[in-house]
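Checklist before submission:
- one chain only
- standard amino acids only
- sequence pasted in full

Submission:
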Amino acid sequence: MSISKTGEAGTTSKRSIGTFIFGLMFLGPALGLFLFGPLDTLRLHVMTSGWTQIPATLQRIDIEYHHGDTTTYSLEGLYSYRVNGLDYSSSRISYDESPDNIGDWHATTESKIRRASASQALTAWVNPDNPSESYLVRDIRWEKIGFMMIFVLVFGGAGAGIMLFGRYSARQADVASGVVYSGQNLMHWVLGFMSMVFLLISLPAVLSVPSEFSAGNHAILLVLLFPLVAAGLGLAAYRSRKNWLFYGRTPLYLNPVPGQVQGQVGGTLKINKTGLGESWNVRLKCVSQTRSSGKKSSTRETLLWQSSTLPEVTESNDETCLNFVFNPDPELPQSYRKGRKAVIWRVEVEGPTEPVKFQRQFVVPVVEGAANSTLDISTEHQSKASRSQVAAAEASLSQNLDMTLSGDDFVIHSAAGRHLSFFLVFMFAGIAFAGAGVFMFKQAATEGVTLYFMGGIFFLVGAPMALGGLFGLGRSLESRCEDGKIETVRYWMGRALWRRSTEFRSAQQLELKAAGSSSTGNSTKEYFHIRIRDGQRKVRIAEMIEGREAAELLMDRLRASLISDELIG
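Returned file contents:
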């Protein structure tokens, strides 16, 4: 299948330009603030260092109040002085003329000027080459400069980071090259920047803790949470940087290029280090991604399919290579992004935990096509990987289900109490939604009828979730097959609720049904039900099996135990 390089390049170029403009929206104002704020103040301070101090007479000095969202202050005044027999007057008090409410500089400076005027010790700094230029105060307001630099560093750093990320993404997004890099390369920068943001935005408040606490404002101690969060993010950035320095860039060379939905997805991961052992796992995921709009925008991912394998590990020339190949479900969608929706194929690699944990993610392009990988993975390794997958599936089955298979008969008991976290999250989320709905109903009497509508929606969503979670915590299922007849009994808290009977006549009656998933970090657990279709009825015989491989293994065993030689013939 041919790939349009022009189209890819055009899309990448547009995305890069858009990212550059978006980053410039942050960087531009930050640079402007820096140039006309701290840098201009330092320029004026250096320029006036050679000016002459001349006795001055104060006409007036006042603190002006400016009211808006907050109250800010500025120093306004007028003074006069004489140079070479000529009288001059000026209203320029200091370098800083913009109103603010940072510290007590305005009150302190006004008081200092009044005292100097009262003792006839007031002087002005006058430009000897142009006596009409003068300042009454040459103080550098380091507190204000520091406050402004917080915004410069936060917004400027965000803008520069966005622009660099755009360039990096454009450089790595060449589908035709077949080389993909992990986001780990940038993670320490992202974490470091977030740490800096939390530290800088809280710095003024942290510096004021001693004075505020002495004044009785004990709640000011809460701002110390920000530097603690900053320290945690900084530690995470350090660990990410340590990981990056230890393993290097770790490029992934795709084979085929790009991956093929109806064919194979594979590649070779190269690491500039040897002696890393055999404890590796590669997982391929296909996820649907939806981005919401509005002030509280978020990204939601839904797992469509995943599979794991053991890579074949080889070492040569101080380099470790991991070769892997997947055969994805041919019904899955190809990679795409349109508006707020996207389908993303992701390769996740986990390796040794000592001395530095190895964990990488790669977003790989996958298109419709039937091309296979040309990687030469040995037959011995393929057998080893297959045995490992079967062993893992058997272990998962033994943990999930109580089974007895004997000839054509079987008993499967899906016990209660499994997957507690899955159902507890469901139940408590439902309670939260339903509780919010009840609260809105109570508030609607005073707040308006709109809350009746909103409360109804929340309650109708939350109540079934809560009941479903509660039911899932106590439910169990027993399936028994004898002489081709299957009987299932549904229990809740040990009490039988209902029975169903069906007959097995064809292997086509067995169905694998996705039952949901749960995620912890980068790890996603899938759950499946197995059911038998009998006409219009679908009877579940095993439920909440963890992992696709375990569910498919049970399907194979059921086919082998249920289908007699006569039926196969």
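Reviewer check: Residues 403-568 form one domain.
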